[in-house]
């Protein structure tokens, strides 16, 4: 089974001015596409692994052959992380989470504003390349965390609700060194309905 670059459910210009068209195109086709190509190449000589989903591979990284772990960690992580990232984008006109997800965010962070502040601070605090995440912990509470490079919470056995890509390739064409502006703008394109559906499935 070859892993595939997922099609987007929107055009590359759908999130202007928050995420510019050229960044979306390069990010999806070149960066994510590159991870998929390199992942498939790494798995070519391991037919016993080719029918495993990307979630299975990343959740069981330590069981893979030593010679394969770095390639799957980097490229498989890049594929899985970006696939989630694309799935939770939608212009939200300033709306926020509702229903069970809204309740759990307030239970875990006291207020939605506190959650946003902690998430943004975590994203800003990631030195170099990486991601900020909202995850469900083993005790079923929500938590914010960060991973470097293309490492993923899936490899830690965590249930992932949403992630923000803070690699420079995600924002530099439009925001240059203004990482904080990119993070602030991203809140306007979070698809809270999709995140809430993920929460209902994973809780």
Structure description:
Helix 4 crosses helix 8. Helix content is 49%, strand content 10%. The protein folds into two domains: 67 residues, Helix Hairpins, CATH 1.10.287; 104 residues, Iron/manganese superoxide dismutase, C-terminal domain (minor pseudopilin epsh fold), CATH 3.55.40. The chain has 203 residues and is mostly helical. Strands 2-1-3 form a three-stranded antiparallel beta sheet. The chain has eight helices and three strands. Strand 1 and strand 2 form a beta hairpin.
Question: Concise description?
Answer:
The protein has 203 residues and is mostly helical. It has eight helices and three strands; from the N terminus they run αααααβββααα. It has helices spanning 21-43, 54-59, 66-87, 99-109, 112-125, 172-175, 179-186, 192-202; strands at 130-136, 142-148, 159-165.
Describe the secondary structure blueprint for this structure:
Layout (H helix, E strand, L loop, with lengths): L20 H23 L10 H6 L6 H22 L11 H11 L2 H14 L4 E7 L5 E7 L10 E7 L6 H4 L3 H8 L5 H11 L1
Antiparallel strand pairs: 1-2, 1-3
Helix pairs in contact: 1-3, 4-8
């Amino acid at each position: 089974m070859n892993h595939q670059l997922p099609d987007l459910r929107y055009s590359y210009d759908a999130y202007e001015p928050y995420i510019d068209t050229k960044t979306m195109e390069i990010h999806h086709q070149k960066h994510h596409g590159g991870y998929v190509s390199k992942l498939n190449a790494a798995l070519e000589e391991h037919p016993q692994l080719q029918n495993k989903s990307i979630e299975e591979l990343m959740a069981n990284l330590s069981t893979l052959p030593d010679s394969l772990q770095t390639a799957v960690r980097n490229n498989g992580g890049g594929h899985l992380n970006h696939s989630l990232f694309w799935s939770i984008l939608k212009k939200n006109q300033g709306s926020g989470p509702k229903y069970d997800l809204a309740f759990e965010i307030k239970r875990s962070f006291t207020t939605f504003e506190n959650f946003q502040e902690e998430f943004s601070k975590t994203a800003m605090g990631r030195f170099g390349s990486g991601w900020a995440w909202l995850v469900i912990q083993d005790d079923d509470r929500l938590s914010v965390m960060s991973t470097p490079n293309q490492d993923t919470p899936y490899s830690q056995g965590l249930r992932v609700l949403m992630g923000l890509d803070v690699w420079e390739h995600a924002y530099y064409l439009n925001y240059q060194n203004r990482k904080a502006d990119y993070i602030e703008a991203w809140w306007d394109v979070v698809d809270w309905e999709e995140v809430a559906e993920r929460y209902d499935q994973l809780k």
